[in-house]
Amino acid sequence: MRQQVAAANWKMNLTITQAEELLNNLLQQSKQLSDHQKVVFAVPFPYLALAQSKVNSHPNYFVAAQNCSEKKSGAYTGETSVEMIHSLGVEYVVLGHSERREYFSESNALLAQKVDMALSYGLTPIFCCGEPLNIREAGTQNSFVEKQLKESLFHLSAEQLAKIVIAYEPIWAIGTGKTATADQAQEMHQHLRAVLAAQYGKETAGIVPILYGGSVKGSNAKEIFSKPDVDGGLVGGASLVAADFTQIIDALK
Ligand code: PGA
Hints:
By secondary structure, the chain is α/β, with parallel strands linked by helices. It has one domain: TIM Barrel (Alpha-Beta Barrel), CATH 3.20.20. About 45% of the residues lie in helices and about 15% in strands. It has helices at about 15-30, 50-55, 80-85, 100-105, 110-120, 135-140, 140-155, 160, 180-200, 200-205, 220-225, 240-250; strands spanning about 5-10, 35-40, 60-65, 90-95, 125-130, 165-170, 210-215, 230-235. An eight-stranded parallel barrel has the order 1-2-3-4-5-6-7-8, surrounded by five helices. The longest helix has 19 residues, at about 180-200. 2-phosphoglycolic acid binds next to strand 8.
């Protein structure tokens, strides 16, 4: 079975005390996961080491950075390199979240460089894609998201692509309480898998987990995750509440 992932995206929230409390809560009640199920905490940079030390003793629990530099090292004040993230034992990095694309002008071409840098250190990118509302209303979401994948990922070999996790997050559903329906998610995920299959073959396309993100909650996770091409979720708001995120972990196939 393809990997199923519940990824928490804390964004720019929580103090260190709150972060530790939330991790303790979640890990204390952590249930035994099946081999194909994974939980990933994408925490702010200052908490990466703490979070990594907490998940170390919990099989199938991992930590992600929320971004990284495309540069290797050097005079880039305020940036964080993949080498630094890797040196903490962190294994994932979220790339191309719509908030980074919108507020920090991250382009598909820049993201291609970040993907390469992450893979060169063996980190798994959780690569985000998704369309804004006007594109959805115009009905051109499939080609919009397809372009994001092509321009940031299609320079990779099949072997490299097989290491990527994709998160489809329609921007109109992020933090709005307006979730895509399970059918809308399935439709896009199926399309993305077909796009991957056309470029890399069915086998490789069948390996890549495609997560859904955008107002996933404890109450709707099960229905969304039950769709055949939805392999879990990337969760913002509901990942900050232990009881909600536990329900989301429980909803994994
Ligand atoms: P949300 O955020 O769950 O709060 O909608 C999802 C995300 O931005 O990853």
